[in-house]
Amino acid sequence: MDWQQLIDDAIEPSPATQQPVQQRVEAGRSALRRRRVAAGVAGVAAAAVVGAVAWALPQGATSTEPPITGTGRATTEPSAPTSGTPLSKADMILGSVDIPGHVDAAYDFDDGSLVVRDGWRIVRTVQDPLTVAPDGEFDPPTDSAGLVVTDGTDVEWELIYWHEGSGGSSAATSNAAAGSGYADFDTWLDVQVARKTGAWTPDLVTGTPSHLTLLNGTRIIDQRPAPELGEDYAVAELQEFNEQWWVVTRPGSGSTTEALIVTYPFEGDAATLDGFVDHVRSEGVLGGRS
Amino acid sequence: MSWWAPRRTREEEYVDYVSARQAHLLRIAYAICGDWHQADDLLQLALTKLYVAWPRVHRDGREDAYVRQILVRTNIDEHRRPWRREQPAAETPEVEARADLPLDEREALFAALQQLPPMQRRTVLLRHWLDLSVAETAMELSISQGTVKSHTSRGLEALRQALAEEHSSP
């Protein structure tokens, strides 16, 4: 069976009339302009304060900063901020994705230098946490950093990276003071790196077996109670980025839900919850755990 | 005749590429999501990112792979969203007639393709339509080669079944 020919026959040809190429160019120009505006402001500000950087250098973390736990990574405390003029949060679109919210430290678009919003300072740096290509990119970034930044009141955690040559940078950010749901900066950074590199696994956190609630962006595609597996058991299909996961859950200690099996890919006959339950039962994979 | 030729600008190169490839890329997006309007949205997003990253991507000659990767990865996030846009019949783009496969079999196969779980659909399209290797497919989807094989196998089996049912129907 010539699948290539069959599939090609089945897929309609593109419409004869498509968007004018000039519209594509305009959209690209607009995206590039937004990045350059944001990075350009930061770059100019950095140049303006050359030689006067030391004023802003904190000499150590203060009592207003959040607890930080170490993981053995190479860290620097604190790093040198290099800019002064506030960046426009509305314009802060770095890299190939629009960033919700804002960042207070970033790599300069053109030269990759680290710039920090006026009034903010870096109190901890984890160097190069991204050692493989981030999602959507082909190469590992030239530079990456996990940062804890503060203005003395608010504290933010950031993951930023920059590709030399093409310019551009990208960032993930979380306001720790607002309650990010993570125990500490290192845990948050691990999650961000995993998200960026497609290595993230679902984090079941709460809910009843028939009504799971997940954190960290994992989506429930489908779920149902699974009394045929045991009392208060449930099964669910989850999706996180490129991966689909199939899980069996039961109540854990306290209000938590325990995932007994997390499997990907599902090797059963049908990619359905019923098929997954059949697979679990037929394979006896629960063993004596139920 | 001058030996010197002016260097082509980023935009000239980009325009040439998009002009030559957007119909093909739009069809890939359509095969992935099954909706021409969503496909065009997806392609616009991918081409915008391509414009921004053009110097690096063009230098390495990876334009198609870069766009394709954005298409398959972006659509993963779009899939199953409740607000996924329905396409009004009145806005259906006109397409050229095809005669290679009987219409009902074509429709059945395309419907079966769209009903595959997302990753099965992507692996089938990348492997057996776009002719990427297992390793290339694994890289573009950020999954293991073993996963590519298992998804592809199951996806093709589902398509085979759909075609068989179509053949056996009166």
List keywords for this structure.
heterodimer; A: about 290 residues; alpha+beta; 5-stranded antiparallel β-sheet; 4-stranded antiparallel β-sheet; 4 helices; flat; B: about 170 residues; mainly alpha; 7 helices; globular; disordered N terminus
Strand content of chain B: under 5%
Order of helices and strands of chain B: HHHHHHH
Helical residues, percent of chain A: 10-25%
> How would you write the strand order of the largest sheet of chain A?
1-4-5-6-7
Uncertain runs of chain A: 36-74, 76-101, 174-181
Radius of gyration of chain A, whole Å: 24 Å
Number of helices of chain B: 7
Shape of chain B: globular
Most extensive chain contact? A-B, 49 and 71 residues
Structural notes for this entry:
The complex is a heterodimer of chains A (290) and B (170). By secondary structure, chain A is α+β, with helices and mostly antiparallel strands. Chain A has four helices and 13 strands. Chain A has a five-stranded antiparallel β-sheet with strand order 1-4-5-6-7, covered by helices on one side. In chain A, a hairpin with a 4-residue loop joins strand 5 and strand 6. Chain A is flat and about 60 Å long. In chain A, 38% of the residues are buried. Residues 36-74, 76-101 and 174-181 of chain A have low confidence and may be disordered. Chain B is mainly alpha-helical. Chain B is built from seven helices and no strands. Mean pLDDT of chain B is 77; it is low at 1-6 and 76-99. The chains are: A alpha+beta (290), B mainly alpha (170). Chains A and B meet through helix 1 and helix 2 of A and helix 1, helix 2, helix 3, helix 4 and helix 5 of B.
